[in-house]
Specification:
With about 100 residues, the protein is mostly helical. It has one domain (about 10-95). It has five helices and two strands; from the N terminus they run αβαβααα. The protein has helices at about 10-20, 30-40, 55-65, 70-75, 85-95; strands at about 30, 45. Strands 1-2 form a two-stranded antiparallel ribbon. Helix 1 crosses helix 3 (about 55-65) and helix 3 packs across helix 5 (about 85-95).
Amino acid sequence: MQAIRTPVLEEIQEAYKRIKPFIHRTPVLTSNQLNAIFGSQLFFKCENFQKVGAFKFRGATNAIMKLTDEERSRGVFTHSSGLLFVVTINDAFSCKWLTN
């Protein structure tokens, strides 16, 4: 099992460039009521406004975009019946990997 490694800034910037054409820019919101309850300023990154309604879209899109042509030609498989599946299919159509 590999240790989890924190990405460096350059890797984050490269991922952003890869996924930028496919993602929505989502807002960061606050809540005065929750801020008052918790006595702190809270920020909410609203990835529920993403194309498939979840943050998974960014990670799945980045993972698929990093595939080589050879890897991509063998197909992409997900064992999820939920959002990850939806994201994978959406990516395939967005990137025109599926053809008639």
